[in-house]
Amino acid sequence: SSDTTPLLNGSSQDRMFETMAVEIEQLLGKLTGINDKMAEYTNSAGVPSLNAALMHTLQRHRDILQDYTHEFHKTKANFLAIRERENLLGSVRKDIESYKSGSGVNNRRTELFLKEHEHLRNSDRLIEETISIAMATKENMTSQRGMLKSIQSKMNTLANRFPAVNSLIQRINLRKRRDSLILGSVIGICTILLLLYAFH
């Protein structure tokens, strides 16, 4: 059972961790105070300033304090991360168990039915919008068709009412074509004559 039991399973482990963390922090504080007193002693007037062994010892104690502090914070952060992960996994297991139970399955089915109902409502709304757009397009096409028919009837009425205008327009077009042909022939003959004169 010790292999399957989680490491962080109860509040007793949490209290033990908090107690040990407080004790270690107190010890680190005491060690920091001792290092400060050592630094004050080395900076006092009665101690020779060139005592290399004393300065080396002080630096060594400072490095040890820094290593202890770093390791403590690293271990504490790792423990908190493991505890958060255990809590998260526990909540996930509870959610899975609740979904596996009958109420969880029913809630899941109800949620799926509600989602399907919402999808159907959205589909109906889209179909109604498409039908309204199609009806509006049909009305516009019908109105445009009526306008085109009225324009065509008016044009036919004008054409039937004014046949002389049509004959006059046809005569004008024929005269324009004849004038264009005459002008083109005159220009062509002049060009040929100029070329013959230039080569002779």
Automatic annotation (TrEMBL):
Taxonomically, which superkingdom?
Eukaryota
A single Gene Ontology MF term assigned here is: SNAP receptor activity
Q: Which residues form a coiled coil?
A: none
Pfam families recorded for this chain?
V-SNARE_C (PF12352)
Which biological process annotations from GO are given for this protein?
A: endoplasmic reticulum to Golgi vesicle-mediated transport; inter-Golgi cisterna vesicle-mediated transport; protein transport; vesicle fusion
Q: Which UniProt keywords apply?
A: Golgi apparatus, Membrane, Protein transport, Transmembrane, Transmembrane helix, Transport
Q: Any stretches that span the bilayer, and where are they?
A: 181-199
Instruction: Quote the cellular component terms of the Gene Ontology held in the record.
Output: cis-Golgi network; Golgi medial cisterna; Golgi membrane; SNARE complex
Write down the membrane topology.
Single-pass type IV membrane protein
What is the annotated localization of this protein? Golgi apparatus membrane
Quote the InterPro entries the UniProt record gives. Golgi_SNAP_su1
Q: Which family does it belong to?
A: Belongs to the GOSR1 family.
Q: What does this protein do?
A: Involved in transport from the ER to the Golgi apparatus as well as in intra-Golgi transport. It belongs to a super-family of proteins called t-SNAREs or soluble NSF (N-ethylmaleimide-sensitive factor) attachment protein receptor. May play a protective role against hydrogen peroxide induced cytotoxicity under glutathione depleted conditions in neuronal cells by regulating the intracellular ROS levels via inhibition of p38 MAPK (MAPK11, MAPK12, MAPK13 and MAPK14). Participates in docking and fusion stage of ER to cis-Golgi transport.
What name does UniProt use for this protein? Golgi SNAP receptor complex member 1
Organism of this sequence: Erythrocercus mccallii
